[in-house]
Specification:
By secondary structure, this protein is of the alpha/beta class. It folds into 2 domains: 140 residues, Tetrapyrrole methylase, N-terminal domain (Cobalt-precorrin-4 Transmethylase, domain 1), CATH 3.40.1010.10; 105 residues, 2-Layer Sandwich (Methyltransferase, Cobalt-precorrin-4 Transmethylase, Domain 2). α3 crosses α4. The longest helix is centred in the middle third of the chain and has 22 residues.
Length: 252
């Protein structure tokens, strides 16, 4: 039977791959790389994946198969429906790859940014494909280091505090929070600069962009004191690189 691995590769630094990830990669016959649009950030993600393969694997021991997937279109009426439609399109592409580009008993893999269990849809997509019954395969998940762990390490802070919980959310959802609800909140995927809604509160921010990469940027302090610096820093990074992936913690 065909087998698929979802391999967490961390936030972009090849040094952050686990031994389990490297050893699993050595067993893989074919790596699938999904190309999403022409934006610079997407191209850089593909480049890093290929660099990881070249660094840890011998040439000629594996195949790389690329396939184009559509970018997610924003659904103004329903965010969830927009994501559901996009994942269905992605599932169709992945189904064809597994069916047509793998021989029986071969091992395929997707290199997943960060960890496959955190804000990544591949797990649910594979489960959906199996439920549909179009193609049969086994799958396994190899965990990876997340940008959250790297952020805490770079700022030299514990992620949790005694007797407190941690909230992990997105910039889109953060806008729904009242300032009083923010105690220890990790924020990912913030294209809205949602932190600006808390500028008048007694909240600290620990921010990191391009975590784990050679372009890593860090900033921390009382939000109201550094918010203008942070906004300028984010704008400058986007302008120079054409994209930005950042993570931050809001903490009271």
């Amino acid at each position: 039977m065909k087998k698929i691995y979802l391999i967490g590769i961390g936030p972009g630094n090849p040094d952050y791959l686990t031994l389990q990830a490297i050893n699993t990669m050595k067993k893989v016959d074919v790596f699938f790389i999904l190309e999403k649009g022409e934006r610079k950030g997407f191209k850089e993600f593909i480049k890093i994946r290929k660099e990881i393969l070249e660094r840890y694997l011998d040439r000629g021991t594996y195949r790389v198969v690329s396939a184009k997937i559509p970018e997610r279109k924003k659904n103004r009426k329903s965010y969830k429906e927009g994501v559901k439609t996009w994942r269905q399109q992605k599932a169709e592409v992945i189904t064809e790859l597994i069916e047509d580009k793998m021989k029986d008993s071969e091992i395929g893999a997707f290199l997943i940014w960060g960890d496959p269990s955190l804000y990544d849809g591949h797990l649910e997509i594979l489960q959906h494909i199996l439920k549909e019954g179009a193609v049969n395969f086994e799958y396994k998940v190899i965990p990876g280091i997340t940008s959250i762990q790297v952020l805490a390490a770079m700022h030299k802070i514990p992620l949790n505090r005694i007797g407190e919980s941690i909230v992990i959310t997105t910039g889109r959802k953060l806008k729904e929070y009242a300032p009083a609800e923010i105690t220890n909140t990790v924020v990912l995927l913030d294209t809205y600069s949602a932190f600006k809604h808390f500028r008048d509160s007694d909240i600290d921010i620990y921010w990191g962009g391009y975590l784990g990469s050679k372009d890593e940027i860090l900033l921390s302090g009382r939000l109201r004191d550094i918010i203008e610096d942070l906004k300028k820093l984010r704008s400058k990074a986007k302008r120079e690189k054409g994209w930005l992936m950042d993570t931050y913690i809001l903490r009271r």
